[in-house]
Amino acid sequence: MLYLNSEQGFPGPAPAQPGLPAQPAPPAVTEPTPVGDNLAPQTTTLLRDAWRRLLRNRSAVAGMIVVGLLILVAVFAPLIAPHDPLAQDFDSRILPPSAGHLLGTDDLGRDILSRIIYGSRVSLAAGILSTALAVAAGVLIGAFATYYGGFWDNLAMRMMDIMLAFPQILLAIAIVAILGPGLTNAMLAIGIISIPIYARVVRSSILSLREKEFIEAARALGASDLQIIFKHLLPNCMGPLIVQATLGIATAIIEAASLSFLGLGAQPPTPEWGAMLNGGRHLLRQAPWVTAFPGIAIVVLVMGVNLFGDGLRDALDPRLKQ
Amino acid sequence: MSKRRILLVSLLVIALVAGMAAMGQAAPKSGGTLVFGRQGDAVSLDPANVTDGESLRVTRQVYDALLDYSEKDTSLRPALATSWENSADGKTWTFKLRKNVKFHDGTPFNAEAVKFNFDRWRDKNNPYHQGEFEYWVGMFGGFPGVVKSVDVVDEYTVQFTLERPVAPFLANLAMSPFAIASPAAIKKYGQEYGNHPVGTGPFKFVKWDRGDKIVLEANKEYWDGKPYLEKLIFRTIPENSARLMELQSGSIDLIDGVNPDDVALAKADKNLQVYLRPSFNVGYLAMNMDKKPFDNPKVRQAVAMAINKAGIVKAFYAGLAEPAKNPMPPSLWGYNAKVKDWAYDPAKAKKLLAEAGFPNGFETTLWAMPVARPYMPQPQKIAEAIQSDLAKIGIKAAITSYDWGMYLDKTSNGEHDMALLGWTGDNGDPDNFLYVLLDKDNAVKPNANNISFYRNEQVHKLLIEAQTISDVKKRTALYEKAQEIIHNDAPMVTLVHSTPPLAGRKYVKGFIPHPTQSESFATVWLDK
User: Fold this and answer.
1) Do both B317 and B466 map to the same domain?
2) Which run of H or of E encompasses B410?
3) Is residue B270, in this structure, part of any structural domain at all?
4) pLDDT tens for residues A100-123?
5) Contact list, A183 vs chain B (CB under 8 Å)
6) Which of A51, A102, B176, B232 is the most exposed place for a label (fewest CB within 10 A)?
7) Do A90 and B312 make contact, defined as CB atoms within 8 angstroms?
8) Is B246 domain-assigned?
């Protein structure tokens, strides 16, 4: 576990040893300075360390490049796309890839490349926004419940357990069924079903942190609960949270595409990769490119995010520090 | 006319059989199971209470009506009634019934049974009048509608007294929804009858796994001779291409709903044969006139002009269809060929919309069927095409869909703004299209067939008058006039008349696609 904003004053030795609840006070706390002082240089070093490790990891760099490129594509879609992604042309239905339509056309005569380019906006937005929602809600639930412990902790965690007992996608389908199909509702559903993951990540960090001396010190200095949670506890959970969220974006993208594939997410004519897969399904035998390219797009993006996320985990893991 | 026709039919049959024997063709073989793959599951197996082809396709096998259509078209032949007579004033019909016919539950078929069924359908206060009985309303104009009374003359004679002469009366009686069900079974099952169908037909009901399959078995005591097939299974496979794939792999024997794009694929397979069902339908976009802004004729006309009909037909039917300008197919008498279709003209449509007070268009919903229908093999795609056409004149339509049963319920209840739907003719009479789809009698929630909720008094008068007289020439004139008015009012955008393709394994014999979309499997056999 990593303390980015290390108020203990040093990053090691391994602080959270499971099974060893009461540790002796770290001897290094010698300076009586108020919390928050003299931290900047150390944080930067840590980050720089992590960054260096990340850059050494080739697959992580590859993932970063893929994601970066796709973000550029999404941002500059109108400049890049050769055609209007919504323009139908019945005279050029189901054309195989050619110079005019690099990835061919679908059965409404729409240019698949343009649709994929615009679709990257939908997929990235769905992945990032739904994860942001899940992180925000999960962190709050996890932090408060754990900090106050007891009944609240029990209540929140049992609710999280109940949510985790459902297969995620099934729960998402149920939520969308209640809210009504649509991209916003699909993102909301994906956000909701991912909450328990983040709540648990935060909980496991805080459980070990809240008994630490620097928290006691903060309390002794008269910090309020809110201050302790937001200033001292949460910043120290960031490492695992960032890793989890990055990987969560990949899952969210797949889930959004799945919901759209089932007709519950993006509604026509929105170009969305999952919906495109579904739209070309009946042409699988005559025109495999209609489904193949959106499928490849999903794979590439999700793989990119995953590689990046894995690399990030390795980079932020102090045990791998050389 | 009837006796002569019977004679003619029998002679034809004899000639046909003799001819086949002379050619040395293999005699039909008995036995085997035929699995039929189709788009959607049945809604109910009580034929009087459904309107969808998938239910009637099955009930057609379990029940008989008083009359039946010939194998290839909608000319009539005797079924449970052997002969019939009309009184001079056209208001009284007397039917002689077939003797020694038993329902599948063993109870006898007789005049009482016929009366029981008709009273159940037409009398709102009948204790067994459970359901909507949409087809009764559609064809006979309400409860009790034109049928004043049904009387038992003797055990095998039944008499109908009508309010007024009804020209398509016999043709109506031959329709699958008016098949005779076992009174004992209806009394026994009550509300649940739709799950326990009991008729006199060539196949008996065995079981129904909802959403999956319906299993029927041969009725060995069928009055018209035992059917060749031992078992008949209707399987639901919603995806057109998946269904074709199953057919190719051999797990099913016959399918309806081949994607027009897939016809070439099926034709190339040497194990398969492709059938074309005679074109007898219309696919349309209904605009709910009970809802704003579709109460405004200019809005409806604008929509009609905004849709690139020719493009849709070309793109989604692979040449197996023609654009529709009337709500009935051109192969049917009474079709008004002089009607000039709304030309595709987005600019003019936009102007019209502005005149109607919507210069920037409006937002609405466009409902699309969840399943492929014979008149619309890819409703979702067609909806997307229409959505794009409408967007060009500023109408933002969100595509909405429900499962098939719910879709029909909700549209019948007028919950939609615009909805795709279609109609396959049942009885070869223009009445079955125009009166059912566009008369005010059928715009009554919650069981409307007229889901445009178009209520035009003049059209109503014309259609009722056309029902009353039997002179085909005069009726043609009335129907032509009605089509003209309907065209100008544009309650629906008539999109397409399709020629639905089917496919089957080569060993399936004796299957003749019927224009009405429900064919008897009594004469189908397997050559394997």
Assistant:
1) yes
2) helix B404-412
3) yes
4) 999 999 989 999 999 999 999 999
5) none
6) A51
7) yes
8) yes
Query: Does the predicted interface ipTM exceed a cut of 0.85?
Result: no
Tell me which residue in A108, A279, A286 faces B261 most closely, judged by beta carbons. Answer: A286
Query: One-letter amino acid identity for A275?
Result: A
- Contact present, B305 and B348 (Cβ < 8 Å): yes
Q: What architecture (CATH level 2) is domain A48-80+99-320? A: Orthogonal Bundle (1.10)
Q: CA of B240, closest CA in chain A: separation in Å?
A: 7
Could you say which of A108, A284, A286 has the minimum Cβ distance to residue B385? A108
Do the chains contact at B388 and A282, CB–CB below 8 Å? Answer: no
pLDDT tens-digit profile of A12-42?
A: 344 444 444 444 444 444 444 444 444 455 6
- The string of pLDDT tens digits covering residues A178-216 is 999 999 999 999 999 999 999 999 999 999 888 889 998
Contact between chains at A285 and B381 (C-beta distance less than 8 A): no
Is there a contact between A286 and B262 if contact means CB atoms under 8 Å apart?
Answer: yes
Q: What CATH number is associated with residue B73?
A: 3.90.76.10
Burial B73-101 (b: 16+ CB within 10 A, else e): ebebbbbbbbebebeeebbbbbbbbbeeb
Calculate how close chain A gets to B201, using CA atoms only, in Å.
36
Residues of A in contact with B383 (CB under 8 A): 268
B272 and B210 fall within a common domain: yes
Residues B482, B511: one domain? no
d(CA B483, CA B454) in angstroms, rounded, equals 13
B245 and B341 in a single domain? The answer is: no
A268 inside 8 A of chain B by CB:
yes
In a domain, B5, yes or no: no
Residues B306 and B272 in one domain: no
Residues of B in contact with A284 (CB under 8 A): 241
Q: Is B239 on the interface with A (CB under 8 A)?
A: yes
Regarding whether B446 and B338 lie in a shared domain, the answer is yes
Q: How many domains does chain B have?
A: 3
CA distance B318 to chain A (A): 12
**Predicted model pTM:** 0.81
Instruction: Judge if B168 and B244 occupy the same domain.
Output: no
In a mutagenesis test of the A interface, which of B388, B389, B395 is the best target, namely the one with the most A β-carbons within 10 Å? B388
Q: Which residues in chain A have their CB less than 8 angstroms from residue B315's CB?
A: 90, 93, 107-109
Is residue B231 located within the same domain as residue B151? no
Minimum mean pLDDT range among A31-35, B290-294, B339-343, B391-395? A31-35
Residues of B in contact with A93 (CB under 8 A): 315
Q: Is residue B191 in some structural domain?
A: no
SS3 B376: strand
**Facing residue for B239 by CB, picked from A86, A108, A282:** A282
CB contact under 8 A, B314 and A90: yes
CATH number at residue B229: 3.40.190.10
Within 8 A by CB and 6+ apart from B199, the residues are: B59, B62, B63, B64, B103, B104, B179, B180, B181, B182
Is B385–A279 a contact, with Cβ atoms under 8 angstroms apart? no
Cβ <8 Å between B240 and A282: yes
User: A93 in contact with B at a CB cutoff of 8 Å?
Assistant: yes
